[in-house]
Amino acid sequence: MPDCIPLLTLPTLRSFTAHGMRFHYNTTPPNHLRHLKLEYSVTDGPFLEILLKTSSSLETLEINSHFVVNPHIPYDRVKRWLTITSQYQSKFQNALNKVSGTLQRLVLAMPEYVFGRVLDLHTFTQLRHLELEMKALLGNTNSQPPDITTLLPHGLEHLCLRRSYYETVIKSAITLLQAVPSSFSHLKTLKIGFAWPEDHTVDAQGNLVEMGSIVVSPNGDVLANGPVDSEWLKDDSGNTSALQRLAVEAGVTLELWDEELYVEHWHDLEGW
Q: Domain-by-domain residue ranges, the chain?
């Protein structure tokens, strides 16, 4: 697979999708791509910084490293890949701003990285689809989350927040839906994946247990299923019900689900 990386330098190349690859600081970044998708791949802070600074016309950026690293492997065995630390996060935001006028689709699904800073995307005028880990947008679960409406572009159509914590994300989602009529009239879908402890997703035999989910259509139809011990399904605070009601009023399709954390196999990074 590393032999494919030189293809990025082809001046006529506009779209590139990679599966199970590793990109690092000494990889030559492209400056002519419009669409870059890295699935089950890992990258480091310096490469991301250089990539975003040189790809000034980027329209699609997807980095999905879910399930790349087996969570059962001790941290010290994989930490050499986890290089988006605080020293790179401010640079990453600054570099990301370079494509604020062209980027239409942004997916950053990188659970093994710790986002200590909150990404501010309100100036991304062309952004229509956004998928992020909750912490990348709302910060640490122990702190007061920022006003979500000040961090998102008003032209956004689809928002997905993954690995979310109920108390942190639910009120921010309510705030966003309340602002739909005045500021986010283009919003069509809001998806929230709730982080579930691993011991809740697999039984003693290693089999998957039922995951909870709710889909609410703009006309009010509700499709729900799942275990009663999901905090957001129990809805003791009434916030989930309020969120569903606001989604219907705003004409936004709402999807809530328990994150799937367990997989049968993992990409082997040890030989990379």
A: 1-117, 148-262
